[in-house]
Amino acid sequence: MKFREKTLESGTKILLGRNAENNDELVKKFHGKENIIMHTVAPGSPFCVIDNLEQSKEDVNEASAFCARYSQDWRDNKGNVKVSIFDGKNVSKEKGMKTGMWKVKKSKTVTVKKKDIEEIK
Question: Are the C-beta atoms of residues 106 and 90 closer than 8 Å to each other?
Answer without folding.
Answer: yes
